[in-house]
Amino acid sequence: MKRTKIQNLLKNGVPGTRVTAAGWVRTRRDAKGFSFLELNDGSCLANLQVIADATLPGFDETVLRLYPGASAVVEGVLAASQGKGQSVELRAESVRVLGLSDPLAYPLGKQRIGFERLRELPHLRARTNSFGAVARVRSALAAAVHRFFRERGFVYVHTPLITASDCEGAGEMFQVSVPGNPDFFGARAALTVSGQLEGEAYACALGDIYTFGPTFRAENSNTRRHLSEFWMIEPEMAFADLDDDAELAEAFLRALFACVLEECGEDLAFFEKRVLPGVTARLERLASTPFTRVSYTEAIERMEKSSHPFEFKPSWGIDLQSEHERFLTEEVFNGPVIVTDYPKEIKAFYMRRNDDGKTVAAMDVLLPEVGEIIGGSQREERLDVLEGILRSAGLKPESYADYLDLRRFGSVPHAGFGLGFDRLVQICTGMHNIRDVIPYPRAPGCIR
Ligand code: ATP
Ligand code: MN
Fold first, then answer.
1. Is this model's pTM higher than 0.70 or not?
2. Which of 421, 428, 348 is nearest to 167 (CA)?
3. Is the pLDDT of residue 64 over 90?
4. Does ligand 1 lie within 6 Å of residue 372's CB atom?
5. 435 close to ligand 1 (CB < 6 Angstrom)
6. Would residue 448 count as lying in a domain?
7. In this model, does residue 289 exceed pLDDT 60?
8. Could you tell which of 230, 256, 339 is best to mutate to test the pocket of ligand 1, judged by most ligand atoms within 8 Å of the CB?
C-alpha cells in the first residue's frame, strides 16, 4: 500500500497535493453535510484531520461505520487547515474501511482511562497518546545510545542472557531449566543480572565496548523504579580509571537528555501538559548543569553536619537511602551528583581497592528527584589483590577462573558502569511508574 505517514503530511504536506493516509480513527464528529475524522498512525502524536463530505460514494457504509479504534485508508487532497494547531487537513475523495471497531466494546473510547487500568491492556495501550509518545521517546533514546558510542569508537557487544556465572551478587537470579532434563547445559544456568563480566572480557581485547540488552532480577521490589526484566546499558573501557568512567557517564547522560530535547519536542510538550508539568525545564537543567563529584566520605560529613531531619541517620558505612540521595542532589549540590569511593563493605567484590584500605573506586550517579541512575566502578585489575578478596569473602577462586585469567594475561586498568535504560526513559518523560515506560512490564505478580 502506498501511503504517506501522517508525520510527513503534517510537516511537509503541500496544499493541493493528492495523498493517501492510513491509520486508526481516534474520533469522528458528524456535522451537517460532512464528517470529521481524527486519524492517527503512530508516526507522531498529532492526528490528521480528515473531512469527508456526505456526498462521497458509499459514505454511509464507510465513514458512518468508523468509530474510535477502527482502521481506514483515506485518499484525497490536502488543504490548508482552517482549524488551529494543524497545518493541513485532508479532504477525502475515497474512504476505505480496513477494520471496524465496535464502539460498545472498544476499551479506549471517549473517556480517559488511568495508567493503572491501561496496564491491563498492554496490547492496546500503545494506541493512546501517552504510550505512543513513550514508545517514540524510547526509540529515539535507544538510537542516541548507539550513536553516542559509535561516534566514540565503542564496539557493541552482545553478552549472553543465559549465563552460568552467578558472580556479581547484583541481584537475585531467575533460574533457567528444562523440565525433565535438568542437565541440559551441564551446569546451573540463570538469566543474567548484568553483562559486565563478559563485557570486561571484550573490553580487555577490543578496548572500549558497550552492551545494551535485557537484564533480569528476581528481587521482590514492588517499587515504581524496579522491574524484573529491564534494559541496561553497560559500557566498559580498557586503559581507564574512575575519573574516565565518571567523565563518560556525564557526557553520555547529557547527550541523551539533549537528544530528547532536540528530537522529541512534540512528545515532550505532551508530557509537559499531561504527565508532569516541569519535565522540560528539568531536562534542560540536566542537560546543561555540570555534575558535581563528591566522595562518599565527604557526602556523609555534609549530611552529618546538616540539621536536616533524616529518617535514617547518615553515618560512615551506611548505604545511601533515597532521602540521602535527594538531600545531596536537591539541597546540597542542586544538580546531578557523582558520589565516589564507597566503603568496600557495601560494594561488589570486583571494585578496585583504594590505597586507604577502606574504600573502593566505585561511583553512583544521582539525579535530583529521581535518585540513582548509574552504578559503576574501576575494576580490580591486580591478580593477587583480587584473589585475596575472593578468599576472604569465602568465594572459591576456581569459580572465577575466567575472570582471573583476564588479570593473569595482560591485565590492564579498566572501568565501566551500568545505566538503567527504563529509568532513563522515566526521567525523560516524567512518567511516574517504570511499568509505564516499557511495553510489556514484568514485575512480581505482573505479567501479561
Ligand atoms: P537499586 O539500588 O536502585 O535497586 P542497584 O544498585 O541494584 O539499583 P545496579 O546493580 O547498580 O543497581 O544496576 C545499575 C543500574 O541499573 C541502576 O543504577 C539502575 O538504573 C538500573 N536498575 C537496577 N535494578 C533495576 C530494576 N530492578 N529495574 C530497573 N532498573 C534497574
Ligand atoms: Mn547501584
1. yes
2. 348
3. yes
4. yes
5. no
6. no
7. yes
8. 230
Give the HSE-up count for residue 362: Cα atoms under 13 Å, Cβ half-sphere: 21
- For residue 424, the ligand 1 atom closest to its alpha carbon is 20
CA of 329 to the centre of ligand 2 (A): 16
Q: Are residues 357 and 425 in the same domain?
A: yes
- Write the CATH number for 379: 3.30.930.10
- CA–chain centroid gap for 247, Å, is 21
**Residue 354 is assigned to a structural domain of this protein:** yes
Domain assignment of residue 237, yes or no: yes
Calculate ∠ Cα 90-96-98, nearest 5°. Answer: 120
Q: Which pLDDT score, from 0 to 100, does residue 221 have?
A: 83
Rg (CA), the chain: 26
Report the residue among 423, 431, 436, 437 best suited for mutation to probe ligand 1: largest number of ligand atoms under 8 A from its CB: 423
Query: For 304-322, what is the mean pLDDT?
Result: 94
Which residues contact residue 194 at a Cβ distance below 8 angstroms, ignoring those fewer than 6 apart?
168, 170, 215, 232, 234, 418
Residue 208 dihedral angles phi and psi, to the nearest 5°: -110, 125
- pLDDT-derived band at 317, boundaries 50, 70, 90: very high
Q: Would you state the cell numbers that stand for residue 56, as one nine-digit string?
A: 462521497
| Tally of CB atoms within 10 A around 184 | 11
- Nearest residue (CA) to ligand 1, atom 21: 420
Residue 63: all three cell numbers together: 465513514
Q: Is residue 420 within 6 Å of ligand 1 at its C-beta?
A: yes
CATH of the domain at 48: 2.40.50.140
Which range of residues forms the domain containing residue 418?
125-436
- In the three-class reduction of DSSP (H, G, I as helix; E, B as strand; rest coil), residue 92 is classed as strand
